[in-house]
Give the backbone structure.
Amino acid sequence: MGYKFNSGETLVEICKKQDKKMWEVMLLREVENSEKTEEEIFDLMMDNLQVMKRAVKKGLEEDIKSVSGLVGGDAKLLKSRYEKKDTVSGSRMLKAVAGAMAVLEVNASMGQVVAAPTAGSCGILPGVLITVGEELNISDDDLVKGLFTASAVGLIVSQNATVSGAEGGCQAETGTASAMAAAAVVELLGGNPEEALHAASMTIKNILGLVCDPIAGLVECPCVKRNAIGAANALISADMALAGIKSIIPFDEVIDAMYRVGKSMPVDLKETALGGLAATPTGKRIMDEVFNKN
């Protein structure tokens, strides 16, 4: 048996037969599909991790504003709150959320990010993974393994559904990113492949049907806050899976349902800025201001 898979069921089967983790199977799949060695591929993924780390740091420490001026600085505000005050959500949760917001703000200000799986959802995976790494003293090498686990989930979604907001709504973008992050955390903390996919399933189920309605057509608002929710969603789902809670609907069926829901959405709710929040009076006013300014 090789390492080719196009479903969660097949991935788990390979993991069991080969006695390997999801990250190992994904890495070996890349070896099969490229002319690179395991070490070369691992190093390339390490580069991605470092870009993610720089984006989180930049968004949390520097004064950032998007080109339109709609977003920027919220990650720093949240960081100040969890560092200085007792919080409702807890500092670890808010640290991950702030990290996710930071990366999306860097993206909106034309900074360098890793689109994992998309630019519009790029904050969730680094916000979650880097926070878990810092809080639980996980090495960069192990975090890279988490990125391979996340990649396996993203690959299955892209093969069987979509990660595009224009095609499947925000459920496809932030939902997939949350699923990727949740699976990575579960495997990093000792969970098995089935538990990782239960976590991934729950994250997508939690926001099934979420529309993509960017104000003024920009990947800024409400995208930053949805990355925040996506990070929290991933952490909660990971904890549920590690506690032994299972998704009643299997991962592959959840992905199929998400795709069908996305296909049934009207075009106004799929990144066109014609519906949802973009179509509110304030959304329309902001769009006029942005385009008149530019």
User: Anything to note?
Assistant: The CA atoms of residues 194 and 241 lie 9 Å apart.
